[in-house]
Amino acid sequence: MTLHATSPIDGQKPGTSGLRKKVKVFQQSNYLENFVQSIFDALDSCDGQRLVVGGDGRYLNRDAIQTIIQMAVANGFGELIIGQSGILSTPAASCVIRKYPSCGGIVLSASHNPGGPDEDFGIKFNGPNGGPATEAMTEVIYRNTQQISEYSKADIEPVELDVIGEHTRGSTLIRVIDSVVDYAELMQQLFDFDAMRTLISSGNFRFCFDAMHAVAGPYAQQILIDLLGAPADSVINAEPKEDFGGHHPDPNLVHAAELVERVNAQGLDFGAASDGDGDRNMVLGNHFYINPCDSLALLAAQSSQIPAYSSGLAGVARSMPTSRALDRVAAKLNLDCYETPTGWKFFGNLMDAQRITFCGEESFGTGSSHVREKDGLWAVLCWLNVFAATGKSATQLMQEHWAIYGRDYFSRHDYEGVDSDAAAAMFAELKQKLPTLAGSEYAGLSVDQADEFGYTDPVDGSVSQGQGVRIFFSSGGRIVLRLSGTGTSGATLRVYYDQFDAESLDLDPQKALAPLMRAAEAIVGIEKHTGRAAPDVVT
Ligand code: G16
What we know:
- This protein is of the alpha/beta class.
């Protein structure tokens, strides 16, 4: 029996990065099957095609993979490549899709969201370039979910996922591969492993990587410990767990508190963490937090120190809410700098067209064209390579960078679980006000320009409207407001503040940005609309 009758299920619209819902939602009858069939139906053909499947190891990962195998067999795929134990980090999945030409891959993850029976699950499709499906593709998938009437699922024996090997089900070859080896090989092609080994073995440089009980653990162990010779305690929380040890696998100062404490208490030179699916990164110096916008700008400025990028970058890109620190580097290096909407999928076309090499986002995402996803461990290796090449500390590098380029103070304030109607009403009022803002003063700051960001992809001409409200001030400051597209309950309001300063380089960002925060309240009335006097998370 392969054909099963079904009917559309509401709410299967992919967000910023695939479909993310509570585990209990995914456990509803036909929920996963409807979405997977809708992906398969969006492909030109499944017949004889190769598909990559993996996930971040969270609760439901294994069961979902067995379901996907049953459906892939019934839909006629020729070959499935699956990470051992169902594990593939998001960047490793991208690497594998590119290395073994495939029609794409399915990645099971809800990223930095917590895992477990009462927590979150997610599924996204990546295309043949290894990157997140384009908006056009996710629209087709969504349309399919609204029209679906049947799906195909084969009645077959489950596949042993814990052992590397090959299996046949129906006419499909199923290869369970080492989750790390292809990715580790790619990293060795990009970086100067000898120089990094020398730095680490010198004993003058100590660091810690926090895998947060998520997918990056096995990758970090193999690359940082086995290949680079770092001491075993340089990687903590390395064992992937279905519930991430009960924590949020979210690399920020709040959720990676153990790392921050360790770096500061032990006087380590460098600390880093990545998220559930290994694509995000946070980096720290000793008592020195480096925000992702600055990390991106610094790595772009120092990229010539890294072998794979020593002959220069094609161009760079950042998401719109990301601070403009990268733009200053691009101007100095005479590089094109693109501004895209939030979502890694918008970088794919630019990389495929070789318009950019480096890109990143304020949401702890940094990456390059080596794959088509952001890549947490890659960013850590970039920093290690720059330390090895320059002999400078994180603090020194960042301070020297600001001395050259000036500093873009940046902070994001998140208001989580806001009532969706209240959030919608707030944006409706704000959008109506936008044309009247320019030229007026709010909390002592004068507005230069205010608009809603829209993007026309310079490669394929596709247009994405309504990508966040921007308010620019004559002081050089900017406020951006948008609603998150990755939450699983209520609305999450994100307010991004950035302020350029060429002279005062060592202020507390919250203090440097306080005038903008007062202006935001005066213009938007965040408290009036959301009932929140303060954000839930500040990064
Ligand atoms: C995803 C996307 C990123 C985006 C982030 C936050 O990251 O891949 O491009 O910046 O979500 O999106 P939002 O502000 O809409 O919540 P991840 O790491 O969650 O897959």
